[in-house]
Amino acid sequence: MAKKLKIALLAPFEEPVPPRQYGGTERVVFNIAEELIKLGHDVTLLASGDSRTSAKLEACVDKAVRVLPESVIPAIRQGLSYAGLSKALFIVSNNGFDILHNHYGWQFLLFRDLFSCPVVTTLHGTLAEPTENYMHNRFREEPFVSISDSQRKHSPKLNYVATVHNGIQVDRFTFNNKPKNYLAFLGRIHPQKGPEYAIKIAKLSKQKLIMAAKIDPLEIDYFKREIEPLIDGKQIQFIGEVDHKGKVELLRNARALLSPIQWDEPFGLTNIESLACGTPVISMNRGSLPEIIINGEYGYLCSTITDAVNAVSKIDAISRSKCRKYVEENFSAKLMAEKYLEAYKKVLRK
Predict the structure, then answer these.
(1) What angle do CA 336, 337, 341 make, to 5 degrees?
(2) Does the pLDDT value for residue 271 go beyond 80?
(3) Domains of the chain
(4) What is the pTM of this model?
(5) What are the Cα distances from residue 165, in Å, to 70, 238, 289?
(6) Exposure check for the chain: N or C terminus, fewer CB within 10 A?
C-alpha cells in the first residue's frame, strides 16, 4: 500500500465547505478532501466553522465570511478573512503535516518562511489580473497547479508541477434525457460571465431563459443597470442563488446551458456540472473551454453571439447520454484527487 500522507487542505473562508449555494473553489476543496480520505489518507481541512466534511475540521473562522452582515464593507470582509489566515498559519506550524494544499491564494505564500511543510498551491483565478500575476510571480519557484493549460498562458514562468482539471461527484447530478423547453444560465452576475449576452441569445433564438446566479454586493449596481431591466419574468426569468438541489433541477431540465463568457475562464465548474446532467453547453471559444467542450460533441464553442444563436437551433443533435459519460470518464472527483496525489508526490520527491 502507498504511504499514508498527512495532508492539510487550506480553503478560502468566503463560503463554507462545501458551499450551500455558489462557491466553485470551496466545492472543489470539498471533493478533494472526500476523495483523499477514500484513498486512505489523513486529511485536515482548514476552513470556516460551518463547513461539513469527513476530514478533521480546523475552524479558522466561526462562519463563512460572506454570510456575515458586516462583510458588506470590503475592508472588513478582507480583515475577517486575514484573521482566519492567521489562525491557519498557527495550525500549520504546529501539526507536522506532510504537505499543505493551498487554495487560499498568494496571500498565504507571504508567510511561507514561517514553516517547513511543503506547499502546493492551486491557481483558481485568472493570472491575467495584474495583482494576481505580479504576486504569484513573486513566488514563482513555489510549486503551482493550474486548473487548465490555458490558465498558464498569462504567467508561463511559474513552477507548474501539474495541470489538474476540476472534478465533481458525478453521482450527485441526476441525468435527464428528456429536457424541458428552456435554456439555463448559472453562476454569478458579473460582466465576465456575460449574463446580458445570455439574455440576448435567448431573445434572438426566441427561447425561454431561466437564470440562477449569485449577486455580490460589488455587482449590485451592474445588475440593476444592465440585467434587471431585461428580466420580464416570463421569457427571461431570474430565480437568484440556488442550492445544490435547485442547481441540479435547473440544469437537468434545460435544453442547454448558456455560458457566453467574456474573459479567459480558468475552468468553469458549471460546465461539467451541466454535462453531468446530460445538458450540453453553448459557450465562447476562449479560455479553458476548448479543454472542456469538444465542439459539436458536448456543446458548441462560438466566436460571436450569432454563432451562439445558431447553436441553439441545433443543440438537440447533441447526445445527452454521451455528455454524461464524458464527465464520468474525464471529470470525476476521484480522478481529480488521484492527479493531485501525483502532484503531491512529485513535490515531496524534490
Answers:
(1) 120
(2) yes
(3) 6-167+332-349 (3.40.50.2000), 171-329 (3.40.50.2000)
(4) 0.92
(5) 35, 30, 12
(6) N
